[in-house]
Specification:
The complex is a heterodimer of chains A (264) and B (290). Chain A is of the alpha/beta class. Chain A is built from eight helices and ten strands. In chain A, β9 and β10 form a beta hairpin. The chains are: A alpha/beta (264), B mainly alpha (290).
Amino acid sequence: MAYLDISRVGISFTRAGRTSEVLREVDLGVAKGEYVSIIGHSGCGKSTLLNIVAGLLRVSTGAVLLDGREVNSPGPDRAVVFQNHSLLPWLTVRENVALAVDKVFAGRKSSGERRDWIDANLKLVNMTHAADKRPSEISGGMKQRVGIARALAMEPKVLLLDEPFGALDALTRAHLQDQVMEIHARLGNTMIMITHDVDEAVLLSDRIVMMTNGPSATIGEVLEVPLPRPRRRLDLMEDPVYAHARAAVIEFLYARHALPAIAA
Amino acid sequence: MSTTAIKSPIASTRERSDVVRAPIGPIVVKRLRAVAAELVPPIVVLVLLLIVWQILCSRPGAGLPPPTRVIDETWDLIVHPFYDNGGTDKGLFWHISASLQRVALGYSIAAVVGIALGTLVGQSTWAMRGLDPIFQVLRTVPPLAWLPLALAAFRDGQPSAIFVIFITSVWPIIINTAVGIRNIPQDYRNVSAVIRLNGFEFFWKIMIPSAAPYIFTGLRIGIGLSWLAIVAAEMLIGGVGIGFFIWDAWNSSKISEIILALIYVGVIGFILDKLVAMLANVVTRGTSVQ
């Protein structure tokens, strides 16, 4: 069995007496240390799938197993990097990370160890210099780095990234993608990332999971990206493997599973 | 080459010291100008109002005394705020401090109860559906309408006055707290779910700070209302207090004393409002609306 096993997961929401099925029969196994991206058009339920793995939503059918145990509530072993950073604006950068560290490691680490651990994680994302600033005083890219530090500091079994770079400009995004790749290489985390950026998916992932359009969305295809690591974006520009993977994803999204004209 | 290299730092130092020294004068002038821009308009308007008041009330047969006579007649009260002849014959300081004590007690209870109830109503849909209609009706009851009921229940003026303060200021605190709690972004709830904060930690670390700007809006409206209510309540219950002082002065036809008391009431209400605003600013670290 895979490290993270998403098995025949389906979810429906009932609103005002009308039930709509968002996901049906989603089957996916993720190996330890693997980087998996989930890509699909808006409204295909990819964020819903991530929230199920996070435990923020309960499945209607099927189950999610992490390391052999069923997931049915949120927890720090499945830390989430939220799309809009979700830092608490009244806390400093350090306090935001500390809130998670102090809670997750209460009783397991002494206060000194926890402080060192907070520092280490801020250093990992190069945010030591702004540790005492508030979220309103730092840029969007910096906020997202703190969000990543907060999630990594929980030592999650799986790191869940919900369109982590979606709200950033292209240059900042590239910079952060490189940092995430470096962290993944160094720590070997298992990562699941939601994205709708084809290049981002190909550059970062070991496998790309492509979702069909909703309602009742499911996994349409899974693409292996057999590029060696470490990957450098400049070298990949001309790489035939990269180009082929990119073309396959684009073909899936825009030829076979294009959004109907009304929805787009 | 070498000479220029040695010379240039000296030149730059001299330049820098000039730069530092030169603007001290202009900076002071600028500050003074900024302060003057704040202070001059209200002073001018105040002086104009006093002049108009003086002219209007100096005519024979005027109902109210002009400012000069107010100062003349209340001079003893102004310079001796601390005298105490026993009973209710005390200086204005004692009256005001008695009123402030009642407000402090009633308002503190209102703050605690208001934030607690507001949290409940904001957090639980069931509590909101059950309590909100009742709150909406009760909050429109005028403060003084509660007084007879309070007197009947407590059989004493002091707790009744405190109850009136409480019941007047609690509604805006409840309603604003509830709105603040309801507006906590789902993201913050998700974050606390992922790190598994318990209910108590969620309340102190997420709910209260997140809703603080709303809570302080309620607290600020509440302090204004309670100061409004205390004067009216004290007129009816008697004893030491600024409200009773005004009523007593009216009964002895000392109009100048009423005017002096009104000025004190206004200034203290203003200070109370600013104090809560300052507290809000400190607690919410500048994110609350001024």
